[in-house]
Amino acid sequence: MNRKKIYSNWFMVPAMAVFTIFFLLPMVISLFFSLTVWDFHSFTFCGFDNFKTFFSDSSLYSSIKNTMIYAVLTCVLKLFLAFFLAVFLTSKIKTKNFLRSVVFFPNLISTVAVGITFCALMHPSKGLINHVIELFGGNGMDWLGNTHTALYAVILTDVWKGVGVATVIFIAGMQSIDKTFYEAASIDGANAWQSLKAITVPLSRPAMNSVIILSFIGGLRTFELIWAMTGGGPGYATEVMASTVYKQYAAGYYGLSTAGNVIMFILIAILAFPLQKFLLSKEVD
Amino acid sequence: MKKRKRLYILGDAAGLLAAAVFFIVPFAFMLINALKERREANLLNISLPDSVHFENFLQVFQANNYQIITAFKNSGMIVIGSVLILIIVGSMGGYVIQRRKDRTMGVCNALIMTGLMVPAAILPTIWVLQRIHLYKTLTGMILIEAALHIPFTVMLYRGFMGSIPVELEEAGYIDGCSGWKIFTKIIFPLLKPVTSTVIILNAVTIFNDFTNPLYFLPGAENATVQLTLYNFMGQYASSYNLLFADVILITVPMLILFIFFNKRIVDGMVAGAVKG
């Protein structure tokens, strides 16, 4: 049969058309407009000035640093928490289906709603979290109002919301591991910790790679939670790339905003793509 | 063996306790405070309400001249419109990409998959929308949401196509079906399971999307559900009961979806993550 005729190019056209006009084309255009000072009607070419501003202005530069902290920390925390949660939730406990649903559900609620709720829970004087800390004799603090803790408070909320997806990915990976490996290991006298280290960890590698890539990229792109919880403040303590893009846009600096967007592309290109290559190359052997 | 059993029961208990502290408490907190009277809710504690105030929900509906009803209507139209587009273009795209492993499709596939990683270029997208007069319109928003979710959708369809035998298309071809007929009469009906996954997952993400409406659909008459919630946060900073009533209104539909489609949602997300 004539493959070209049956699987005609026309099937691909609608998807490519929508995707090109509303995603690829703007992406290419952004490379140009990031080199200009522009509004939506006119532009003046200004070379690499926008990028220079980005790296010399401390508030803009700190957004790059915060984005990196955010991406790395959320990724690492989700990886470890999800791994152990998955080990726990694939064991023979009776309530595992219920617990899986509970851990997963926050992922389906809107980020803004999560932000509002955790802002209230982290309220400096009335918040439930501080009450619990005081109950145990500690000192409550202004989680979101303190420049040293704000970013980490948002990161923890992100982990709370996102750990469920990572966990179900790990669970799927662990369930596909052949049970006979564990039987063989226990006959050879391996204890639980040894079989975890020698069987579960290496064999859930593909799942692990998905979790790393997904949460790392998610972290680099983060916006909604930051915006709902701190709006980038206090000061610039929680400013990330995506919130800078929005703020520069709202302030009318369209060139700077576009340059921020391009820096996000570059960050993802130089970090996420090689990371994925590296992880996949490890997976083969 | 007995010791083992006791260990599992202990595990159950610890798991339930941890789940209650970390996951149930925040939800209980939302619900309890949504039912309280204003002054009581502003204490932000988790004790049961003195009296239950269901009229909070009514007040949320009436706020800003029934804006939330407009918002639900707008969000609903965006979700329905973009999911319909995604089903049509995504199934056709995933179908040929999986079946034809030649250069053209390789390039298309590579281009589309960049969309899984790279974020949208926002201001240039607004510029494009303005050029074609779709900025601040629901149509524009629907097309943007569709474009942003094409990568994930195509990937799900492509993955599922791998489990459909080519012989079906060959049989159709011998019986004289055209390429279009083979797809619409034979393949598309077989894609039903993955289509329902596509519907649920995309509907949830698009309904919950806050960033894109913020950029591409500004204006009070265009408000979406997430934007109203965000504006509420500023407006009702001192009426937590109303704020949480709004949060509950937005969360409950998701909870219902999750109760009915738990397995489909989880499996779909895992399939999407692992194949990407």
Describe what you observe in this structure:
Chain B: It holds the Pfam family BPD_transp_1. The complex is a heterodimer of chains A (285) and B (276). Chain A has helices spanning 3-6, 13-33, 49-56, 58-89, 96-104, 111-121, 128-135, 150-175, 179-187, 192-203, 205-220, 224-229, 241-250, 254-284, and strands at residues 36-38, 43-45. With 285 residues, chain A is an all-alpha fold. Chain A has a single domain (65-233, 241-284), classed as MetI-like (MetI-like fold, Orthogonal Bundle), CATH 1.10.3720. Chain A has a two-stranded antiparallel sheet with strand order 1-2. Chain A is globular and about 75 Å long. Chain B has a single domain (65-275), classed as MetI-like fold. Chain B has twelve helices and no strands. Chain B has helices at 2-34, 38-41, 55-99, 103-117, 122-131, 138-161, 167-174, 179-190, 192-208, 211-216, 225-235, 240-275. In chain B, helix 3 (55-99) packs parallel to helix 12 (240-275), helix 6 (138-161) runs parallel beside helix 12 (240-275) and helix 11 (225-235) runs antiparallel to helix 12 (240-275). The mean pLDDT of chain B is 88. At the A-B interface, helix 1, helix 2, helix 5, helix 6 and helix 8 of A face helix 1, helix 3, helix 4, helix 5 and helix 6 of B.
Defining traits:
heterodimer, A: 285 residues, two-stranded antiparallel ribbon, 14 helices, 2 strands, 2% strand, globular, B: 276 residues, mainly alpha, MetI-like fold
Reconstruct the topology from this structure.
The complex is a heterodimer of chains A (285) and B (276).
Chain A: H1 3-6, H2 13-33, E1 36-38, E2 43-45, H3 49-56, H4 58-89, H5 96-104, H6 111-121, H7 128-135, H8 150-175, H9 179-187, H10 192-203, H11 205-220, H12 224-229, H13 241-250, H14 254-284
Antiparallel strand pairs in A: 1-2
Chain B: H1 2-34, H2 38-41, H3 55-99, H4 103-117, H5 122-131, H6 138-161, H7 167-174, H8 179-190, H9 192-208, H10 211-216, H11 225-235, H12 240-275
Helix pairs in contact in B: 1-12, 3-6, 3-9, 3-11, 3-12, 4-6, 6-9, 6-12, 7-8, 9-12, 11-12
